[in-house]
Amino acid sequence: MDPEVGLRLLLSPLGSNIVVRTACCSVGVVLPVYSTFKAIEGRDENEQKKWLLYWAAYGSFSIVELLTDKILYWFPLYYHMKFAFLVWLQLPTTDGARQIYMNHLRPFLLKHQARLDQVVGFFYAQMSKFVSLHQAEIQFVRALLMKTFVSANQFASDFIRPERRNVSGAIEGPRQQQVGTSDSEDEE
């Protein structure tokens, strides 16, 4: 596919939002996850800090978007603006994530740090209490999910490689007649 065609499809205001939404997910999550992995494995502290700032800015944006998405997505070119914003957050020339963090997020968090620590502590205590009170249910759901995952994996495996299906000796239907033989040859 010609890159110019792909760019035209992405930036077309009349095009499907599916293309732009997929691009937002790719640029906003997939590429940063891989870049974060590279920064961690490379032990480059500057890159690690850059991607921590990105995730702080992205997480804050996600919270705002969660609260406003039902209204904002009706605006023309909303996903195009979101795509541009996500690119802006990552570009080294604009250093958007650092700007968001230093100018907005950091001052807000510093101002409300004591109250936020109380809220976070309360939620962690409640989660811990919930988990300890519902261990049996959690184990049941875990076992159920594992069985579902194994069954889905087996189904997908059988679907992809049907020749491996009846290895267990299950009941099979009538065998197909080989090509080149006919009923009249069998009677002779």
UniProtKB/TrEMBL annotation:
Any one Gene Ontology cellular component term annotated for this protein: membrane
Lineage top rank: taxon: Eukaryota
Membrane topology: Multi-pass membrane protein
Localization (cell): Membrane
PANTHER family assigned to the protein according to its UniProt record, in alphabetical order: HVA22-LIKE PROTEIN, HVA22-LIKE PROTEINS
The family this protein is said to belong to: Belongs to the DP1 family.
Protein's recorded name: HVA22-like protein
Provenance organism: Nicotiana tabacum
